[in-house]
User: Fold Ion transport domain-containing protein from Hanusia phi.
Amino acid sequence: EHQKAFFHLSWNILDFLILFFQFLDVVGIAGLKSARMMRVVRPLRLLSKLKSLQLLLLAMRESLVDIFNVLLLWVLSCVLFAIMGVNLFAGDFSSCNDGNFVGAPLNPSEAPGSPVGWRENCVGSFMASSNDSGESYVSDSSPTFLLLPRVWANPTDGASALSWNFDNFFIAFQTLFEVSTFEQWSDVVFVALSATQAGQQPIPQQQPGSILFFHLWVIISCFFLLQLVIGVLIEAINQRSGIALYTDTQRNWLRMRMQMSVLKPLLPDHVPRTKLRYRLWQLANSRLLLEGVTVVIILN
Assistant:
């Protein structure tokens, strides 16, 4: 129970458990192969040595409630923007995989060369030499065309094949989450810029004002709320370290004291006493030698 006892601190208990499992791993006792899994926690021994890391972890533990409130605010903001996105873009992101089916004759109601295409006319097959991402099926130098069916669908992520759109609330929530992580968020913005209406083929740069919706969401979710989380952690660290209770004058004094603690007095130059060593010392510290070495390095 002594204040300086080894097991008085929880960090020392963690350090002891890690060393204990490491000892079992070295001894190799039969039936304790699972102890080898504890190798992955060896870096946690640094927790008992780094006081600043301990302070950060304790501050995170004490600010969990405040961080949860910030995350709840983020979820509410995402719900609000998801509902707005459904009202603005529901059914507008879907398109035909054949971008050349627009206009007449596949769309009888449209004039030849018109950029307008309709969902009911996205039927049949077409020849394509590249996928939806613009990558050639075989080679860019020797295009190979494949016969593909026309499909009316929402855009998808090429790696995961997950669709992103605003057709319903849940997919809209997922799309906004991907945008907040900056994962292919530009693709979502470009599709929104080309959106027209449900059942119509997108037209490039048709709705330039829709970019404001995504920029506002990125500002709120990635900058404003993220700064709130950082502010909560900083406030918890200040409370834990006691800095929050100091006045401005006391904080400035602490900063000056920390800066002075790392300063070291300059040692005087040791001047050789013997004539030969003194000449060599002058040569080693002369500007001519320094410039000469620099020229040799440049020439080399």
Observations:
- The CA atoms of residues 243 and 251 lie 7 Å apart.
